[in-house]
Write a structure and sequence with these properties.
This protein has helices at about 30-35, 50-60, 60-65, 85-100, 175-185, 200-205, 225-235, 255-270, 285-290, 315-325; strands at about 1-10, 15, 15-20, 45-50, 75-80, 105, 110-115, 125-130, 145, 155-160, 165-175, 215, 220-225, 240-245, 250, 255, 270-275, 300. By secondary structure, it is of the alpha/beta class. The protein has two domains: about 1-225, Spore Coat Polysaccharide Biosynthesis Protein SpsA, Chain A (Alpha-Beta Complex); about 240-325, Rossmann fold (3-Layer(aba) Sandwich).
Length: about 325
């Protein structure tokens, strides 16, 4: 039996809703986006833990169940009455309340990880900051792993930059009893840990119990752990409207190299493009082929756009201003 646990019992909101049901620019709830890059064939069930307060206010359990129907495993919602001290305690309470047994995989909801395979039953997913071509923010608040020559984890350290490899929010433990034993030991007053993280549990199992944890290398990664990071993700996936004539001169059959390079960069970071053109729809296929040759696939091509004034009505105030201008 292998259970995927996704703790979502924090009080933080994104765009005014709990993190787990915030919409990623790709269209998925973050709870689904967070696991969409994982090999999940060996998962028997998934348990998402939420707060009773959020269930009362947003009625999210039904939305979560519907969202996760796309996956093969069964899904349960665990509702906690009170907020915990953090994900480590949330996982413990979930294990107790839902009588979880066997192996567990813990996935943070505030990040997306793409990984090709899971290395054994005990593992930690990570990423070398020098192998990643995007900026990683707030490194001082992440956990880092120290690896040996066999790519096994020697230690995992919270909130300290002790290596080039940071954790990407995915952990595997082969026996839930190991987790419970480590949690109970670390919450003893003799340890003096103010806030317990999953990384502390794994460090204890490695250092005190001699458990071997393998390193699972992440291929891609996104973090939504702070409002700043969330805004960066949304900005990278902005929907742009662009006149094709700013890219291409029909008469000379030449590209505007500067504008084309900017467009290619926007597309590479995940932005979507809707192309407008003054040419008739008859030319749409030609526009599509010209762009395809430059590595750009637009979301849509709209022809016959000859109007000199254009505005986007994307909120109530914009509609009201347009109504005043029309009088």
């Amino acid at each position: 039996m292998r259970t995927l646990l996704i703790p979502c019992a924090g009080k933080s909101l994104l765009d005014g809703v709990p993190q787990c049901i915030a919409r990623h620019p790709d269209g998925a709830f973050l709870v689904a986006k967070s696991i969409s890059g994982l090999p999940l064939d060996n998962i028997n069930q998934c348990i998402i833990t939420i707060l009773e307060e959020h269930e009362r206010q947003f009625h999210i359990s039904q939305m979560l169940m519907k969202e996760l129907q796309q996956f093969k495993f069964s899904t349960q919602i665990c509702i906690l009455q009170h907020m915990t001290s953090g994900p480590a305690e949330t996982v413990r309470k979930t294990i107790q309340k839902e009588a979880v047994h066997g192996g567990i995989i813990i996935k943070d909801v505030d990040s997306y990880v793409n990984i090709s395979r899971l290395e054994g039953d005990n593992f930690v997913a990570g990423l070398n900051i020098y192998d990643f071509d995007q900026e990683v923010y707030d490194l001082k608040n992440r956990s880092f792993v120290i690896l040996n020559e066999q790519q096994n984890i020697m230690d995992i350290i919270e909130k300290r930059i002790r290596s080039d490899v940071f954790c990407t929010g995915l952990y595997g433990i082969e026996d839930v009893e190991d987790y419970m034993e480590a949690y109970d030991a670390l919450t003893d007053d003799n340890y003096g840990i103010d806030r317990l993280y999953v990384s502390h549990i794994i460090a204890y199992l490695i250092g005190r119990k001699g458990k071997v944890f393998h390193y699972a290398k992440s291929i891609d990664y996104e973090s939504y752990g702070s409002p700043y990071e969330w805004n960066v993700i949304k900005q990278r996936r902005t929907l742009y409207f662009l006149e094709f004539e700013l890219l291409y001169d029909w008469g000379r059959e030449e590209w505007n190299t500067k504008n084309l390079e900017i467009l290619q960069k926007l597309v590479k970071t995940g932005s979507k493009i809707i192309i407008t053109t003054s040419m008739s729809n008859h030319y749409s296929r030609q526009v599509k082929e010209l762009l395809k040759g430059k590595g750009v696939v637009p979301k849509e091509i709209i022809g016959n756009c000859t109007e000199p004034m254009r505005q986007i009505l994307d909120n109530t105030n914009a509609i009201e201003r347009a109504a005043v201008q029309a009088i």
